[in-house]
């Protein structure tokens, strides 16, 4: 019975060792990561260590929406299905906050760690999202450097400009964007005034064609058309929009760099700033 006493006294120590070991295991960097969201795909591709990222969503290879389509082709593609992801045996899944919620809920029930990265809805959100991805991948140093470089470059492009021409973001079905949307902030950072927002049409609002003609902006920035016929894009062929295009005051500028809150938005800002310099004749 004396031995039993030793066992009783050793049991808590053994249990503590097991718990500590489990904690150490959780602290290890994930070695087989799967991303199921276009925006987390791109942040993960930019930050993951060699061989750490196993799979990205199939959308990441679509050049119309992905700024890293070529790099994404080097990873296993997934379609965000719980069964599919489970069979990949990931030790971490990274996801966005909105889509594939049924998938992430199922994976959590199956014991697979899931990290949800909030969407960046402003330029100032992006450094935080970079650092958050760095945390979940255990790539904090690389994320810190990337976030700092982004902040430095963003501060430079936000420098005041002498002349701010007016612009309107005009999408399928006549939607526009204001300063509370990422696209609207890209517009402002590139040195344009958002004429639609000044007229009372903010993020997610529909801008009537008549109002677009009355605003008469210096430039109308449209989205790139998708192949095939789409009734939502018929508005882009309306005579009012066509008149802007024929006068040189319309440009299809938005593209994959505009979609996600990643450092690629800086490339979108640079190109848009180039269009502004052509309009104003500035040589900044």
Write the layout of secondary structure elements.
Elements: H1 2-27, E1 33-35, H2 38-47, E2 53-57, H3 69-72, E3 76-78, H4 82-87, E4 92-95, H5 101-109, E5 114-116, H6 126-137, H7 140-157, E6 166-170, H8 182-189, E7 193-194, H9 195-198, H10 209-215, E8 219-223, H11 239-246, E9 250-254, H12 265-280
Parallel strand pairs: 1-2, 1-4, 2-3, 4-5, 6-7, 6-8, 8-9
Determine the CATH topology of the largest domain.
Answer: Rossmann fold
What's the total count of β strands? 9
Helix content: 40-55%
- Compressed to H and E, one letter per element, the order equals HEHEHEHEHEHHEHEHHEHEH
CATH superfamily of the largest domain: Nitrogenase molybdenum iron protein domain
Strand content: 5-15%
End-to-end C-alpha gap: 87 Å
The CATH architecture of the largest domain can be given as 3-Layer(aba) Sandwich
Overall geometry: globular
Using the CA coordinates, give the radius of gyration. Answer: 24 Å
**What is the averaged pLDDT score?**
86
User: Which structural category do the helix and sheet elements fall into?
Assistant: alpha/beta
Count of structural domains: 2
Tally of contiguous helical segments: 12
Q: For the largest beta sheet, what order do the strands appear in spatially?
A: 3-2-1-4-5
Largest sheet: 5 strands, parallel
Give the C-level CATH assignment of the largest domain.
Answer: Alpha Beta
Low-confidence stretches: 1-26
Please, could you describe this protein's structure?
The structure is a single chain. With 284 residues, the chain is α/β, with parallel strands linked by helices. It folds into 2 domains: 33-155, Rossmann fold (3-Layer(aba) Sandwich); 162-280, Nitrogenase molybdenum iron protein domain (Rossmann fold, 3-Layer(aba) Sandwich). Helices cover 45% and strands 12% of the residues. It has a 5-stranded parallel beta sheet with strand order 3-2-1-4-5, with helices on both faces. A 4-stranded parallel beta sheet has the order 7-6-8-9. The longest helix is centred in the first third of the chain and has 26 residues, at 2-27. It is globular. The N and C termini lie far apart (87 Å). Keywords: Signal.
């Amino acid at each position: 019975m004396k031995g039993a006493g030793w066992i009783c006294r050793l049991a808590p120590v053994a249990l503590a060792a097991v718990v500590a070991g489990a904690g150490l295991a959780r602290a290890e960097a994930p070695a087989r990561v799967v991303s199921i969201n276009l925006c987390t795909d791109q942040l993960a591709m930019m930050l993951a260590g060699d061989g750490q990222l196993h799979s990205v969503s199939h959308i990441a290879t679509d050049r119309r929406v992905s700024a890293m389509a070529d790099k994404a082709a080097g990873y296993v593609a997934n379609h965000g299905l719980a069964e599919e992801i489970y069979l990949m045996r990931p030790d971490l899944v990274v996801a966005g906050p909105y889509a594939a919620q049924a998938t992430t809920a199922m994976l959590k029930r199956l014991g697979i760690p899931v990290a949800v990265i909030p969407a960046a809805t402003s330029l100032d959100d992006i450094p935080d999202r970079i650092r958050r991805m760095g945390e979940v991948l255990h790539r904090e140093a690389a994320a810190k450097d990337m976030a700092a470089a982004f902040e430095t470059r963003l501060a430079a492009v936000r420098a005041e400009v002498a002349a701010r021409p007016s612009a309107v973001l005009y999408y399928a079905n006549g939607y526009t964007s204001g300063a509370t949307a990422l696209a609207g902030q890209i517009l402002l950072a590139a040195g344009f005034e958002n004429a639609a927002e000044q007229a009372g049409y903010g993020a997610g609002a529909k801008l009537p064609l008549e109002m677009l003609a009355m605003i008469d902006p210096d430039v109308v920035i449209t989205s790139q058309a998708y192949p095939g016929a789409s009734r939502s894009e018929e508005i882009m062929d309306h005579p009012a929009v066509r008149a802007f295009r024929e006068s040189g005051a319309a440009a299809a500028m938005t593209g994959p760099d505009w979609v996600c809150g990643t450092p690629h938005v800086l490339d979108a800002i640079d190109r848009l700033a180039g269009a502004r310099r052509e309009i104003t004749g500035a040589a900044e």
